[in-house]
Write a structure and sequence with these properties.
Layout lengths: L1 H27 L7 H11 L1 H10 L1
Helix pairs in contact: 1-2, 1-3
Length: 58
């Protein structure tokens, strides 16, 4: 049971960490919402749960 909780907390930490870093970076650098850069880099944040799942399950 303890490893399940640890895995879930790791997953959530990685997911939110990746998302907040990406969205925060886009906001900090003033990238406009409609730009292709925003769309391309934003995809990293969109797929952060999948990335986190791969990291935690590996």
């Amino acid at each position: 049971m303890k490893s399940n909780i640890r895995g879930i907390l790791s997953f959530l930490s990685i997911t939110f960490g990746i998302s907040w870093i990406v969205w925060g970076g886009l906001y900090f650098f003033g990238v406009p919402l409609g730009s292709p850069v925003h769309s391309a880099v934003g995809m990293i944040a969109v797929f952060s749960p999948a990335i986190a799942a791969l990291i935690v399950r590996h």
